[in-house]
Design brief:
The protein has 142 residues and is of the alpha+beta class. The chain has one domain. It is 25% helix and 25% strand. The protein contains four helices and seven strands. The strands form two sheets. A five-stranded antiparallel beta sheet has the order 1-2-3-4-5, with helices on both faces. The protein has a two-stranded antiparallel sheet with strand order 6-7. Strand 4 and strand 5 form a beta hairpin. The longest helix is centred in the first third of the chain and has 13 residues. It is globular.
Length: 142
């Protein structure tokens, strides 16, 4: 046991991919995620047909007037991107094409804030400070 955890969870042996399968396979930096947020948001890596199709929102699950998710991209009050959560980590990257700006947050914790992922209220607060006229309205979960 290391720090009360089984040996396979010690920092020397821990591999996110072991617990998160394909989700944990990507290793990146804030700088690279910032580049990817813009590519994802603009759709520049896609054909014109696919670029249009990915933005055809359907009302699914918890989608509402401010938040849409379809085809691997989320749209939220003009911001486009995706979050990521695996044991021990959370990320959120978004891009707003109207103001050509990105926000990328990376946390080395998976703790919740109330009933929602801890990164959600952080993104709401950071977006209000950085972009008071274009804040993100991440839905409150729970």
């Amino acid at each position: 046991m290391t720090s009360g955890l089984p040996e396979y969870l010690g920092s020397q042996q821990f591999r996110a991919s072991f617990f998160a399968n394909p989700t944990g396979q990507m290793v990146s930096t804030v700088a690279d995620l910032t580049k990817w947020a813009k590519i994802l948001g603009t759709g520049d890596a896609l054909s014109p047909t696919l670029k249009t199709e990915r933005m055809r929102w359907e009302r699914l699950g918890d989608n509402n007037d401010d938040w849409h998710y379809c085809f691997g991209i989320e749209e939220n009050t003009g911001w486009l991107g995706h979050d990521g959560m695996i044991p021990g980590y959370m990320t959120y990257m978004v891009y707003n094409p109207t103001i050509d700006s990105s926000i990328v947050l990376v946390q080395n914790t998976d703790k919740n804030s109330g009933n929602e992922p801890g990164i959600n209220p952080l993104l709401r607060d950071v977006s209000k400070v950085l972009f008071p006229h274009n804040p993100l309205n991440v839905p409150v979960v729970g």
